[in-house]
């Protein structure tokens, strides 16, 4: 993808169209929503195999409702596991085992091909 220098609203609109097309293609071809891509990318870049849902929410700006729905879909697709923090059961921990880590990495590599 070419580098775009943003100096005016027209440039913002062009970038917006690229982003919309990107997510439309990802959704169609890979069956991943915007929120799912954000979560998978966060996990892809995480140093740990366990991260809190709150941490993802803060970093991504996703509202808890959308984050919860996307995490449920990713869990059903086998990308993640969820558990409760043993110290504070209100905290949801997203867990990725080695097989899931491989699956996440492969999917992000596929998503990157759309750029």
UniProtKB/TrEMBL annotation:
UniProt xrefs under SUPFAM superfamilies: Winged helix' DNA-binding domain
GO biological process per UniProt: response to stress
Pfam families: Staph_reg_Sar_Rot (PF22381)
Occurrences of domain HTH marR-type (ranges): 1-115
Domain of life: Bacteria
Gene3D superfamilies for this protein: Winged helix-like DNA-binding domain superfamily/Winged helix DNA-binding domain (1.10.10.10)
UniProt protein name: MarR family transcriptional regulator
Species per Swiss-Prot/TrEMBL record: Staphylococcus auricularis
């Amino acid at each position: 993808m070419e580098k775009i220098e943003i100096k005016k609203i027209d440039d913002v609109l062009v970038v917006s169209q690229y982003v919309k097309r990107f997510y439309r293609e990802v959704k169609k071809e890979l069956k991943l929503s915007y929120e799912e891509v954000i979560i998978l990318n966060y996990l892809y870049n995480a140093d740990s195999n366990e991260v809190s849902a709150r941490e993802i929410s803060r970093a991504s700006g996703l509202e808890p409702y959308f984050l919860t729905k996307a995490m449920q879909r990713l869990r059903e697709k086998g990308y993640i596991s969820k558990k409760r923090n043993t110290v504070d059961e209100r905290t949801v921990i997203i867990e990725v085992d080695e097989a899931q880590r491989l699956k996440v990495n492969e999917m992000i590599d596929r998503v990157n091909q759309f750029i």
